[in-house]
Amino acid sequence: MGIVVFSLVAKEDLKNIFYYIKMDSLLYARKEVNAIKLYTHKLKSIPYLEKKFEKYDNELIRELVFKSYRIIYEILEDKIVILTIHHHARSIHNNSALSSDNL
User: Fold this and answer.
1) Sheet of 79-87, strand order
2) Is residue 18 part of a domain?
3) What CA–CA distances, in Å, run from 23 to 68, 84, 102?
4) Mean pLDDT over residues 40-59, rounded?
5) Does 7 score more than 70 pLDDT?
6) Within a domain: residue 70?
7) Who wins on pLDDT, 22 or 94?
8) Residue 41's domain is classified under what CATH number?
9) Continuous H helices in 23-97
């Protein structure tokens, strides 16, 4: 399929996850962010593995669940773009990365 890339919003999400966990443990913050990145790489070979994201009627915008995170991604012709990484405890409807202006 190509490569997996992280949007600016997704990179910021990873940074926020890192700093939040780092308040308790630098080691676990690194492990968690690395685990998220590694998990998304399976999309290279099977991009349609996960379900369509319910907020949009678009087969190319999908959701990958990893631990407590919803990883929203878009399938493009030559790459997979991770749009945002959203924690289950927060309302997905407040995520600015998922506004119709950004998709």
Assistant:
1) 3-6, 79-87, 69-75, 61-66
2) yes
3) 18, 22, 31
4) 87
5) yes
6) yes
7) 22
8) 3.30.2310.20
9) 26-40
